[in-house]
Amino acid sequence: MPSLGSRHDVVVVGAGPAGLTAATTLRTAGLDVVCVEARDRFGGRLASIDGYDLGATWFWDGEQRVAELVAQLGVPAFEQHRTGDAIMQDRTGIRRITGNPIDAPAYRFESGAHALAAGLAARLPEAALRLSTPVTRIRLVSEMVQIDTPSGTLRAAQVVLAVPPALAVARIDFSGDLGPDLIRLAEATPVWMGAIAKVVAGYRTPFWRTRELAGAAISHTGPLRETHDMSGPHGGRAALFGFAAAGALGHGFAASVTSQLARLFGPEAAEPTTLHVQDWSAEQWTSPAGVGNLTDYRLLGHPRYRQPALAGRLHWASTETAADYAGHIEGALYAGRQAATAVLTAHAGAAEAKIG
Ligand SMILES: Cc1cc2nc3c(=O)[nH]c(=O)nc-3n(C[C@H](O)[C@H](O)[C@H](O)COP(=O)(O)OP(=O)(O)OC[C@H]3O[C@@H](n4cnc5c(N)ncnc54)[C@H](O)[C@@H]3O)c2cc1C
Q: What's residue 4's pLDDT?
């Protein structure tokens, strides 16, 4: 039986960009905050290996919160390479399209999107970020929220749930305290890119650029539905990446990918120096079972997620709950700040009630 452990103003569940934003905002406001993270790393769907992004890659014009954070943290960013022609492939064959209608203007993080999470995490003291600490149960006990993890129990006046709603209700026992309507909404809310596999193929040089190809392709025949250039600045760390439906994975997947890339970009593409395949549907701390069946994207940012649950003590914060830019990093930052504001309002209200 875990002991009734430490008491805090706020416990934030999940150290992706939403949870880290909420935790850092609340800490700056002077609250005692602990952020608990299931994985042995922070960042969530911001996951980079050797500078290659296996989760989020881009941000776009108009995404003010990301742009501001990039500037504040001093995270170097650069423009997505788009120069050159694009490729279209369907059953009738492969066509070269003059220009690149596939890649919208976008920006990337020089050393990978994880740098954004690292910058946020660095604002928290070590003791405020607990890795390898999955939350298994959340319930109201004597006007506090009790948060159970395998390594002990935490108690807090407020909790921020910065985990995709469908995953939260699959992995965390709320002892019926959320109510059936909210549970049904959460169970049906898609996990952004949760049913997708991302494939990154590294090469010695960005050879497609010398043929005036952008690295952008749409394909209706191979496992990759679309590809883009994922090289570093000035073509260093050359790479192409693509998305596949997680259902396409299985025996022979890597060989199908490299032969598809060779058909699209030439024989050099058949022999990448590295090939990363990241199946997000198989990540137990991103996607619940059956994530591919969650397709009602109208539920993203549902107004119900802006109402606190558990007698006003639980605030939703993952990108899926954001009223704007839901799904994107921008949405995660938006939702994290919104939850922090709701916590601060509740905290101020409780302090006033005490004085009164
Ligand atoms: C392949 C892919 C490509 C993408 N491309 C882009 C892009 O180009 N641009 C863009 O803007 N966005 C993109 N996204 C989306 C972007 O990654 C998300 O919007 C963002 O990461 C969401 O942040 P979050 O904090 O809401 O959730 P997450 O990043 O998923 O973080 C949630 C955290 O909660 C933790 N957690 C889960 N359950 C528990 C538990 N029970 N207890 C404790 N911790 C728990 C998880 O381990 C995780 O660290 C992409 C996503 C994927 C998968």
A: 56
